[in-house]
Amino acid sequence: MKRSIWILLVAMLLTLSMTAVAQEDPAPGEGGPVITGNSTGSINIGPLNPLRCQAEDCGFVSGFLFPALMGVTPGETFFTPGAPDSVARDWSLSEDGLVYTFNLRDDLYWTDGEQITAEDVAFTLNAILSNEIESTQSAALLDVVSSVEAVDDFTVQVTLTAPTCTALNNLNTAIVPAHVFSDFADMVGNEFDTNPTVTSGVFSFLGIEPGERIALVANQDYAFAPEGVIPQGLLYVDVPDTQVAFERFLAGELNIIGVPPINRDQIRGGNFQTIEYPANNWTYIGLNQADPANPQAGLDENGDLIDQGHHPLLGDQRVRRALQHALDVPAIIEGALEGEGVQMAANELPTSWAVNPDLAPIAYDPEMAAQLFEEAGFTLGEDGVLVANENALYAEPGTRFSIELLGAEGSEENTRALALIQDQLRQAGVEVEVVQLDFNTAIEQITSQTYDAYLLGWNNAFPVDPDQSWLFNPAADELEFGFNDTSYYNAEVVDLMEQARTLPGCDQEERAALYHRIQEILQNDQPYLWLWAGKTMVAAQPTVQGFAPFPNQIYHNVQTWRIPGG
User: Fold this and answer.
1) Are 436 and 409 in contact (CB under 8 A)?
2) What is the largest CA-CA distance in the chain?
């Protein structure tokens, strides 16, 4: 898009927001725009094609542009037939648990007037399965899907490789217009990545100005807004960091924001609309259990286990448990997150239906930490740093307990947490060098498995799927690609996860019991140091009429919002 046209369009959008101030009940498309920010300082966010998106920002924007196969009725926590903004009207599963049949709505259209049909759904899923488009969803689908077929214009059948209780989570994806692409490979490098002109969401793409903003405009043909879309559009502006975003929100330049923990009391004391709820993210310290000097995959080409050696310091489970006891996690949550977090007991979110209610978080216990270090063959040296003796399993006698702890730049909360962790472990005799790198560089080092330990977090999709085979199965221990970068292996965990994933009938209570046992084992084995699950606060200006969010569904009724000004 030529810069002069872009400036004109954005000026029109902003002008409309200012003229809307005087309108108490704006007509469709005449309300002020939704204005929010990305808070990362990197608006060049990559593909807006949702199948190729690999970042939080493009996922946020494309969520307003493309419908999903399935949706969640506002206020619910799992997929519901007929949910808003979804292509599937309903679905059924064959008696043998192998074939899902999706019946599609027949009243949905792309912005170029073409009807959304089974061809689009089949094309989307098969594109992911083809592994030709660099989609982050490919591995999940390849694991469970045998074939996808458009039976007729509004019926799609998906045949699974085997019955699995995680199929709906794996299958749910944004749907793209098949007629825009000549084949799957045509998606790669296509202008659609940066200029998706054929969409079907509440907003349509208007333009992008790198380093400044992305602009979306109301789609008055949006099927789920029969009375029209009130906001004239959405501006997703580039903001250097979370604190600048907060300042701009206070100044009225943004009308909705995810509030950083450090600023939440200020919001609570103001005249703002808010929602607070447990987040779908959790933070942990990954501990490398394999030999970092000779990184290996978990399995060979025949699927047999590979001897990966042992990390000289972290390969002993007693050491990993000692490190957990040496951390005062509640103090870290208070000091780094202003108390806006919940201590994790193991690997499942406290709000998950699969969380073990009887499993308490591991307590801060410096005496137990010291005892375990001694049992593992480490004694305090003259300078207060632990040193390996002849009883250490994998470390040579005289080896100092000194590790490098990696972290990603860009999060003030994590920077504070790293400093607190460094100090607490130093008090236990562990020398920690904190190294913060840009995110991509940190990930490269972690996935190469040459690291000691790292601080990162996982953002679970909504609805939450408790299956974590992709984290704790040796098949996921692949150099540069796999997520089991701690090289963790426990045969019982692998078996229990498979049982929970393939349980006939998928009874939730029966599956939950299996996940409860998995959590007990993972807590004991300590592939991670379990830290905290986050809390989310979203705030809107008091002038945003119609703001009625549910947890994880902040924008479910954005088409009705009445915003007098931007």
Assistant:
1) yes
2) 79
Element (H, E) at 334: helix 329-337
For the chain (566 residues), the mean pLDDT of every run of 10, in chain order, is 41 45 73 86 73 87 97 90 95 94 98 98 97 84 93 98 92 97 95 96 93 92 96 93 91 94 93 93 96 95 95 98 98 94 94 93 98 98 96 97 93 92 98 93 93 94 88 93 94 97 89 97 98 95 96 95 79
- End-to-end Cα, the chain, rounded Å: 24
CA distances from 447 to 49, 452, 461, 479 (A): 26, 12, 22, 6
Residue 532: strand, helix, or coil: strand
| Contacting residues for 76 by C-beta, under 8 A, at least 6 apart | 83
Rounded Cα gap, residues 291 and 487, in angstroms: 10
The Cα–Cα gap between 156 and 90 comes to: 11
- Outline where DSSP puts E strands in 256-385: 256-258, 273-287, 341-343, 378-380
User: Cα–Cα distance between 249 and 256 in angstroms, integer?
Assistant: 7
Peptide bond into 397 cis (omega under 30): no
Can you tell me the distance from the alpha carbon of 539 to that of 264, in angstroms, rounded to the nearest whole number? 9
DSSP type of residue 529: E
C-alpha span between 24 and 46 (Å, rounded): 38
Compute the distance between CA of residue 488 and CA of residue 477 in angstroms, rounded to an integer.
8
Length of the chain: 566
Secondary structure element (H or E) that encloses residue 101, with its range = strand 99-104
Orientation of helix 317-326 relative to helix 508-525, angle to 10°: 90
Dist. CA 42–CA 134, nearest whole Å: 21
Cis peptide before 196 (omega within 30 of 0): no
Which of 483, 473, 415, 419 is closest to 447 using CA atoms?
483
